[in-house]
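batch job 7 of whatever, protein = HTH HARE-type domain-containing protein
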Amino acid sequence: MSLRKQLSDLLSQLLPANPSDAIKGTELIRLVRMQLNGNYSDASLRYHFSIMSCDPGSPIAKVEKGQGYYRRSAPLPALSGAQELLSLTQGRLDDLTSGDQGVVDEAMMRVRKFRAVVTRYFEVNGRFPFAFREAFGKDSPISNLWKFPEMVLVDWETGGSPDEEMSLDETMLAFKQRLGLAPFRLHAARLRIQPSLATYREDFFQTLAVSTWAQGGELIYAAPIVDEALADGLRRLSATFGVGVTSFGLTPEVLEELPRPANILNANLRETDAIMSMLDVTRISSVNSRAHLDWTALSSMRDGSDETEKLVRWLTRCIDSRRAEPYKDE
């Protein structure tokens, strides 16, 4: 096995996710040597660390304006990334093929930051996000964009006291089980950067399509919705089909000012408060939440998606333990 392949496997396990816990090069070399096959010089290992940290697909990232390495956050899935770029250029392929790669990279970084902000926002507001990634890999069919959400948001019936914040309400849980109702609300979400009159119908109906199995659908935009005709169009569609629409009020300039995705996801309380203060969350229309899941559609999704199976197992664990726990990758 090549050195780079060995390092890719080892660094995914050794590196911390939080940049503030970054490991300096000398210590990382020591840790790597304990499991590495082959006799490689320190210079060779440092060279590979440096080269790999510049590769967006590698697991190692270097601390910006500092020393040390940490585990790079997951790259944007290919299908959703490609669709986001097409949306930003309003479907003009020439704008992508003839564009500067640096501009494309900056656009993708804004997308990754937004996804991290949405995840953190819902975590601190008592909702439990579950992200779909494998469904949008580079070898996945384009139809998956109309079948799977980018994120599922779970709202549990929890206890009322602060000490039981994560505990499920036993009485309500038993009551709903007797009525055949789920003790949670599952909303399927689509995330988009820039709303526009040219693309909002596709955004909306894609959200509707990927949420038919859930109890509701939510379309979440990063940028503010300032066009009155656009806002009215979204409200009319929402009134008919029940999909909720929200803007986080993040302009491209504000997105660029935000920390890197890994810093956002691992921010402490003070840092999180600072990030949340940059948001201007506006509800354009409310979601019409249904009482029941479409079990037939959910079963169909499970047959074609390991991630759906992980979602179901996670929800089952929470019900069995009577605790609403954040999802941890299996």
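notes: The chain has a mean pLDDT of 84.
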